[in-house]
Automatic annotation (TrEMBL):
Belongs to the glycosyl hydrolase 29 family. This is alpha-L-fucosidase. SUPFAM superfamilies: (Trans)glycosidases (SSF51445). Gene3D superfamilies: Glycosidases. InterPro entries: FUC_metazoa-typ (IPR016286), GH (IPR017853), Glyco_hydro_29 (IPR000933), Glyco_hydro_29_N (IPR057739). It is an enzyme of class 3 (hydrolase). Keywords: Glycosidase, Hydrolase, Signal.
Amino acid sequence: MRNDFAERTRWFREARFGMFIHWGLYAIPSRGEWVRSLEKLSVEEYRPFFEEFDPVRYDPRQWAKLAKAAGMKYAVMTAKHHDGFCLFDSKLTDYKATYTPAGRDLIREYVEAFREEGLRVGLYYSIIDWHHDDYPAYGDKIHPMRDNEAFKNKPIEFGRYLDYMHGQVKELLTNYGKIDVMWFDFSYDDMTGEKWRATELVRMMRSLQPDIVIDNRLGGNIKAAAPEEYAGDFASPEQMLPAEGIANEAGRPIPWEACITLNDHWGYCSSDRNYKSAKTVVRGLVECVSKGGNLLLNVGPDAKGVIPHEAVEILREVGRWMDANADSVYGCGAASLPKPEWGRYTQNGNKLYAHLFDRGMGPTSFAGMNGKIKRARLLADGAEIKVETPWMAYEYPDDAFVTLGGAELPDGIDTVIELELA
Ligand code: H79
């Protein structure tokens, strides 16, 4: 890794767990943030939600406390999504929270609240914009007006959109203090790379915020041996965990962050109760860490500004696990051992963490580890765990063994054994 790159991504690679927040006008129709595209809603048809947006229960300090209690180290919130609506007080548009009944800059309150809790602060910014007049509409793949004939011969000047987009990024990186992550979304087809004037954009960003960590969705190839200047600092697999982590073409691991929804929508969807359990979340987080990546877990607050209670309860349970087991997450990465049958390994220096998902039968074996473990402790309470080869395992001299009492694991979510390596 280049030195400046290694330096500026260090905190990101150590943090491992963040909160994604998708919030905007789409919380009112409550069918997800793609509602305009999916239902081909015009700006006028979407207008009532702008007139109505009044999140009287918005309290980002509560969100920040929840994120922190869950063990998250950073957050990324939608400053603007594809619908073009700005939660921040941009001087470059009237299509912003300031002119809704909310009447103020909601991003500023988010940034201040999360910073106050000691969390790193990120902003999501959609480079796609379905509200701006100079963004391609008719014939585009996903624009809400893609097959509205009225837009067919409407001339646009895309350069004007780019000036606007660059100008808004400049506002976000000038007016809110230190921004830790910039999360662009997303490039497609020929709408990629220099089509966004990406090199110029990234240079401007780094001049304003030298330490900012940027995702890879301006385009380019982050896996190339010599990536474009705009190719980004981390890969951003969406709604999936990569099978074996992510490496560049030279085989060197690159930072990555899987973004995953807690139910099946990013933006609030009142009918979607399909929430992942705390167990699924913890095991997913551990899988990311075991492959050298981060988990950015999404919440979609409702129109009042409330994070759904199901999400709150899941995050609190994740937090209970993190309280006892976070040492096996923060600063940890992949171990140079194959995935064991009972779960996964994470590692931080000479501490190897065995995440037991499956008790199985008989003693638990650490393949190839005989003589390499100085001591073993249950991470949650520090209790001694004896590393001993029981009589029935004498024919496996390469492996280390522990014998856990009981037929079930003490923590059904993930029982972590800390192995101090000799
Ligand atoms: O902000 C969240 C999403 O709105 C955005 N990225 C995350 C972080 C995103 N969603 N989908 N995509 C990016 C990729 C596009 C997927 C599509 Fe489709 C498949 C567009 C058209 C077909 C999904 C399915 C959206 C509409 C139908």
